[in-house]
Design brief:
Two copies of one chain form a homodimer. The first copy, chain A, is α/β, with parallel strands linked by helices. Chain A contains 14 helices and 16 strands. Chain A has two domains: 235 residues, 3-Layer(aba) Sandwich (Aldehyde Dehydrogenase, Chain A, domain 1); 154 residues, Aldehyde Dehydrogenase, Chain A, domain 2 (3-Layer(aba) Sandwich). A seven-stranded parallel sheet of chain A has the order 10-9-11-8-7-12-13, with helices on both faces. In chain A, strand 7, helix 10 and strand 8 form a beta-alpha-beta unit. In chain A, helix 2 packs across helix 7. Chain A starts with a helix and ends with a strand. Chains A and B meet through helix 1, helix 10, helix 14, strand 13 and strand 16 of A and helix 1, helix 10, helix 14, strand 13 and strand 16 of B. Strand 13 of chain A pairs parallel with strand 16 of chain B, so a sheet runs across the interface.
């Protein structure tokens, strides 16, 4: 089917989920998980073909992301079952107002409609996204990367088997059959057919979506996250937080990229930081962190002088830009100017400083004495996550099931006119 | 100043409102209202120049919309004072979660940041929009139509006098000095400078924004609103509702454009409808409604045969498309296919039919036994309105102060790492 045909079929399928209650949706999810496991041989065969075609064309890290085995398929099925266990976000009464004229106005959560997701080569995104969309009452249109195309088709075939077993239309879960740029552009401009577009991937994909999408689109993911070590910080705590935020998983969007240190503690703290991120890690045989220092930091410790772009770069690597500031206000102003609005943290024992920082730093998540790595749907208690929005128009921050819903007003009267 | 200079100045001004509490913002609003009234002579002089320049180039209705007098300025000032009386939407704790690891996660309402509003020739929009933006903590960048440019400048000068009196920066309220299409395009693509774009105006403006905007943009306003008269409708109530929805103000977006009638009552109801909308109005000397009938309706009453586009047109005029359907399901399916998702209504005494209709019709506002004309911030109890969103990505429906806010997560810990 062409992309347009798939989009029209997806649109036609919407009413099936509008009537489905929680029991029906959960039954579908369990059937989808079961069918995925039953069809693991077909999925692994398709995945082997994907791997064969990709070998030599993508790096080892990417190949590992692409590769499936029985354990990973079991994990994907378990992920779908966990979504079934989450509460139903649809049909919740968010507010009720009775107006003086007797009109009863209820604000009720409803699905977005057709949600399109453009992603890259991880096969598990296919089942994760389909499960989250279904639970939130949305029809999903998935457009994965070409490296994982055969795997994604086999996974979607299994998910559709599950849908058929509970007598829901196959067209609730759709995979675009064209992995060229043209199909991504078609999704971005499918006004009237796509209600929400979520790009999941690198900065290039997200920029392309923001620049070209005429359908409502969520800007996700890019994180230039800061940790500011205040003059009144517990320095040991600051070390632990930065060690975690920078090195526990440098390739993710909630990892720290910039450390700002108050000048009152810089002489003491920066040597501690260098010991923790460079010397201790070298001694332990771990990958060391490359420190890129502004002029003031460079007077205190050794490191690479920071270049012009180093305070505006999402390194996603063992690299940390380090600067010295003279005040809380300067730190907040720097972060306002350079942050991508994802996650930023202050380490301080001073509650007033924390209150100022959390008020003035306008990022999706602002931390006081905790690691930026917690910005995540699971860690926030949402139970799941389809992405992290860095825009201000809702949703913002980690997106779980509720964030995949819209709302509508249902108004009951007895003949009121205006 | 150029548009870019204004946008950068607006961005710089944001922190002034992030720290402003309700008392400060309300004081500013009262000072703005006072200054507008004090500077009424300058505003009227500017308005006279606008009127002089526009005469002969725009129609009488538009000229009337453009014209100011003391009474209208007093009304505008009163509108600003009313916004001061509304609750502060910023800084509300929307949800609090304590996680098992001790992290306290608060979801808090915050301003969007810089809100750009593109509108047409009504001068009162200038002060209304500025007041709503300020109360919601947003810096506004206004771009009005060229016919009202001198008036808007005089109004903004007065509003800025008010801001200065309470020692807030003038740059919280900004007017773009270029009324060409180029400046509108600059706002639509000012990524990183504009956090939200709201177009207020005709279908052409809204389409241009949806197609060209790369900043987050709200699709507002277009309303092809339906009233469905069910087989179990109270027909007198249906007549009252349709009379109101179609004729009380045909030029607005929540006016009815399409009437669907169940075949079980069509023989009885359509002659009643024709009497109410055509014969009674003619007898009363009122503008009559032109009925555009599908084939089945045309077998029952006289009228103009509906053309291909008549069930997909926002007439904004004394014109009503009328069709006959055989079932509730057919009515809901027709509305799903043809509605713009603004406001749709069912008239029925059957609660099950109403429940089905309000579940299946996915519009921003779905009415049971009331007129579509109630879709309005004031009528919904929001106290005000800056527009009506017809998209599903939030906000949806009437936008008041809360809908001009985003949220962020403020997370407090004691050194948690992941």
């Amino acid at each position: 089917m062409t992309t347009q045909e798939i989009l029209h079929a997806a649109r036609q399928a919407r009413p099936a989920l509008r009537c489905a209650d929680r029991a029906k949706k959960d039954a579908a999810l369990l059937a989808m998980a079961g069918a995925m496991w039953e069809q693991r041989a077909q999925i692994l065969e398709a995945n082997a073909q994907d791997l064969e075609a990709a070998r030599g064309r993508i790096g080892d890290v990417m190949l590992d992301r692409l590769a499936l085995d029985e354990e990973r398929i079991a994990g994907m099925a378990e992920g779908v079952r966990q979504v079934a266990a989450l509460p139903d976000p649809v049909g919740q009464t968010l507010r009720t107002v009775e107006r003086p004229n007797g009109l009863l106005i209820r604000k009720v959560s409803v699905p977005m409609g057709v949600v399109a997701i453009i992603y890259e080569s991880r096969p598990n995104v296919t089942s994760d996204a389909a499960a989250l969309a279904l639970k939130s009452g949305n029809v999903c249109v998935l457009r994965g990367g070409k490296e994982a195309f055969r795997s994604a088709n086999a996974i979607v075939a299994a998910l559709r088997t599950g849908l058929e077993r509970v007598e829901l239309p196959r067209e609730l879960v759709n995979l675009i059959q064209d992995t060229s740029r043209a199909s991504a552009m078609e999704l971005m401009t499918a006004n009237g057919l796509v209600d929400l577009l979520i790009p999941r991937g690198g900065a290039g994909l997200i920029r392309a979506c923001v620049e070209n999408a005429t359908v409502p689109c969520i800007e996700t993911g890019t994180g230039i996250c800061h940790v500011y070590v205040d003059g009144k910080a517990n320095l040991e705590m600051a070390l632990d937080i930065i060690g975690n935020a920078k090195t526990s998983r440098p390739s993710v969007c909630n990892a720290e990229e910039v450390c700002l240190v108050h000048s009152a503690v810089a002489d003491k703290f920066l040597p501690m930081l260098k010991k923790r991120l460079v010397e201790d890690r070298a001694a332990a045989g771990q990958q060391t962190v490359e420190l890129r220092l502004d002029k003031r930091a460079a007077r205190i410790i050794d490191g690479i002088p920071a270049g012009e772009q180093d305070f505006d770069t999402e390194f996603l690597d063992y690299i940390l830009a380090v600067g010295v500031v003279d005040s809380l206000e300067e730190a907040a102003a720097h972060i306002s100017a350079h942050s991508t609005g994802h996650s930023d943290a202050i380490v301080t024992a001073d509650a007033d400083a924390a209150a100022y920082f959390t008020a003035m730093v306008d990022s999706a998540a602002v931390y006081w004495n905790a690691s930026t790595r917690f910005t995540d749907g699971g860690e926030f208690g949402l139970g799941c996550e389809i992405g992290i929005s860095t825009q201000r128009l809702h949703p913002r921050g980690p997106m779980g099931l509720e964030e995949l819903c819209s709302y509508k007003y249902v108004i009951s009267g007895n003949g009121q006119i205006r």
